[in-house]
Amino acid sequence: MINLDNVASPSLLRRLAAMFYDGWLLVALWLIGVTFDYFLRRAIGIDAQGADPLLRAYMAVCPFAFFGWFWTHGGQTLGMRAWRLLLVDADGGPIGWRQAMIRVAAAHLSLLLAGLGYLWILVDRDSLAWHDRLSRSRLVITRRS
């Protein structure tokens, strides 16, 4: 459990940098799925044209699984670790799967609305984004080890 009175909230730039790192990891997972789908469809003789519903489902589930697993198992993705960010719940403890799923969905909505949910950090008194508030979680900056 982290005492939230003594921690700093990350800037928008720091959050975006971690998102950039994690975005590349997510793209890699998607490419693995696309490659697997392509070779599987060729091996069983299915026309490789058009979108496969299973591939679409895989690509939709990937962000939830990727972020959910990292956030519920240590509170950090690889990008967050590089930028010394830690995700905690409103009390300073680890988040659960429900919070992680709400956070991923709300973060996607924030991006779809021209990034307004992220820009909210600039005017919020606690420097929280929409997905922080909706999931009752927050990012904090960790100390150098």
DSSP summary: helix tally: 6
- The whole-angstrom Rg is 17 Å
Helix content: 55-70%
Indicate the mean pLDDT.
Answer: 94
Bulk shape: elongated
Percentage beta strand: 5-15%
The strands making up the biggest β-sheet line up spatially as: 1-2
Distance between the terminal alpha carbons, to the nearest Å?
Answer: 18 Å
**Largest sheet entry:** 2 strands, antiparallel
Kindly give the count of domains.
Answer: 1
The class by helix and strand makeup works out as mainly alpha
The poorly predicted ranges are none
- Element order: H for helix, E for strand: HHHEHHHE
**Number of beta strands:** 2
Secondary structure elements and pairings:
Blueprint: H1 12-43, H2 53-72, H3 78-82, E1 85-89, H4 97-112, H5 116-119, H6 130-135, E2 137-141
Helix pairs in contact: 1-2, 2-4
Structural description of this entry:
The longest helix is centred in the first third of the chain and has 32 residues, at 12-43. Strands 1-2 form a two-stranded antiparallel sheet. Helix 1 (12-43) packs across helix 2. It starts with 11 loop residues before the first helix and ends with a strand. The chain has one domain. It is mainly alpha-helical and 145 residues long. It has six helices and two strands, in the order H-H-H-E-H-H-H-E.
